[in-house]
Amino acid sequence: MSPAAMRRPAAWLRLPLLSLALGWTLLLGAADLDYHLQPVQIAPHSWVFVGGTDDFSPKNGGNIVNTGFILTDAGVVVVDTGPSRAYGEQMLRAIRRITNAPIALVINTHHHPDHFLGNQAFPPELIAALPGTREGISKEGESFNENMFRLVGDWMAGTEVQRPARNLAPGPLPLGKDLLEVLALHGHTGADAALVDPRDGVLFASDLVFYQRAPTTPHARLQDWLASLDTLQARSFRVIVPGHGPVAQGDTREAPIRQTRRWLGWLDQAFRQAAEDGMDMGEVMNLPLPADLAGLGVARAEYQRSVGHLYPAYEQQALSHPRKRP
Question: Which H, E and C letters describe the chain, residue by residue?
Answer without folding.
Answer: CCHHHHHCCCHHHHHHHHHHHHHHHHHHCCCCCCCCCCCEEEECCEEEECCCCCCCCCCCCCCCCCEEEEEECCEEEEECCCCCHHHHHHHHHHHHHHCCCCEEEEECCCCCHHHCCCHHHCCHHHEEECHHHHHHHHHHHHHHHHHHHHHHHHHHCCCCCCCCCEECCCEEEEECCEEEEEEEECCCCCCEEEEEECCCCEEEEEEEEECCECCCCCCCCHHHHHHHHHHHHCCCCCEEEEEECCCEEHHHCCHHHHHHHHHHHHHHHHHHHHHHCCCCHHHHHCCCCCHHHHCCECHHHHHHHHHHHHHHHHHHHHHHCCCCCC
